[in-house]
Amino acid sequence: MAAPGRKPKPSHLKVVDGDPGKRPPNKNEPKPRPIAPKAPVHLDAVARREWRRMAPVLERLGLLTEADGPAFACYCMAYSRWVQAEKAIAEHNAERAPDSEVPPSCFVTPKGYIQQIPAVGIANQAIKEIRAWCAEFGMTPSARSRMSVTGDDSDDDMEDLLSGR
Asked: What's the pTM value of the predicted model, to 2 decimals?
């Protein structure tokens, strides 16, 4: 059974955000290694490209771990569904007669009603899923605006040695 109330923010995001609630972090929280998992074989080509594009970025930020594979795969599949739905919408709109009285992304049913094409609903649902998964991985502009990265920007050990750091 799920716990009531808001789901807790992952500890690594609390540290990056500065933990405004000042609650102590869970010291017994599992800490999987910050290594990007391999892409599942069931991903389609679009989802696989998105995995290859975003996994290194999230891994570098420490936001993607070896345990996050299924969740990240869901994000990639939602992204793929959105891209495919948007292509279907564009194809439908390109096939429309330029002087058509039917609005873009719509068709006339056999009974004469105007209805949106199913790809619009698929795209809208995929966008909602993408937004939710992006929030889970700290991938939205609003999530980044609340984050504060502490520490040194330098990754060069020799530079640190020479500068006395």
From this structure: 0.72
